[in-house]
Design a protein that fits this description.
254 residues, alpha/beta, TIM Barrel, eight-stranded parallel beta barrel, 10 helices, 8 strands, binds SN-glycerol-1-phosphate
Length: 254
């Protein structure tokens, strides 16, 4: 009997088969758990490849557990935690982006929360996916919370330096983040430079301020393999239409 694929293997398989994957970010703080379930269900119908659950403030405890459970009941997509600290872990999730905010000034976000969370990840049997997390200007709430030295738009070489450091430390996923609700997403030149540096074996995620299919498509053409959208999915009146627009464009842009 063959074993079930890990979430990382599933994502890598989707990227190999279709060029790119679409993840929808749901912040447990923003809506009731049953609404989060409906959002995930609509996203799944529209072709999304997974649901990320997390937020910079207040995304822990009972509301997190109930949100993850509601999403699991509503669809078959993998649920990947995206925690801002140790309180963002839930035993009901499939995986966690086990990330280090490499350009933080505060060791809390580089190694301390990771050390506090690691035994919990093991006890809950959540799959850890090692990820380098890099915050690019404007950075939004997560930039403030994570006390990041935001990478300026005109300094792609700084993003490359951090990304290479992450690669040499063994990380397999790299997330270039402009901050939720950012007016402008991460610049295409920076995406292309980072992708060139980390190589094909590492996967590049881009999120923050991606508002439509055209931007998502441009970002994938620049080198990203995973697109994260949160705010547009929260704000639209038609989740299926919005997610379909983004998902279809990234799958055909490769
Ligand atoms: C935040 O990158 C994600 O971590 C999503 O950003 O809410 O702007 O889509 P948006």
């Amino acid at each position: 009997m063959s074993r079930e694929l890990s979430v990382e293997e599933k994502l890598n398989g989707i990227i190999k088969a279709t060029g790119a994957a679409s993840l929808i970010l749901i912040d447990p703080e923003t809506q009731k758990p049953e609404v989060a379930g409906k959002m995930a269900e609509d996203s799944a119908v529209a072709g999304a490849d997974g649901i990320m659950v997390g937020g910079s403030t207040g995304a822990g405890g009972a509301v997190l557990d109930e949100t993850v459970q509601s999403i699991k009941r509503a669809c078959n997509l993998p649920v990947i935690l995206f925690p801002s600290n140790v309180s963002g872990l839930s035993k009901y999730a499939d995986a966690v982006f086990f990330m280090s905010l490499l350009n933080s000034r505060d060791p809390t976000y580089i190694t301390t929360n990771q050390a506090l969370g690691a035994p919990i990840v093991r006890r809950y049997r959540i799959e850890p996916i090692p990820m380098a997390y890099l915050l690019v200007e404007p950075g939004g709430t997560v930039g403030w919370v994570g006390d990041a030295r935001l990478i300026p738009h005109n300094k792609p070489q700084l993003a490359v330096a951090y990304a290479l450091a992450g690669k040499y430390m063994g990380m397999r996923y790299f997330y270039l983040e402009a901050g939720s609700g950012a007016e402008k997403h991460v610049p295409l030149e920076m995406i292309a430079s980072v992708k060139e540096a980390i190589g094909k074996e590492c996967k590049l995620i881009v999120g923050g301020g991606i508002k439509n299919g055209e931007s998502a498509s441009n970002i994938v053409e620049a080198g990203a393999e995973i697109i994260v959208t949160g705010t547009v999915v929260e704000e639209t009146t038609n989740i299926k239409k919005k997610v379909k627009e983004i998902t279809e464009r990234i799958k055909t842009s490769c």
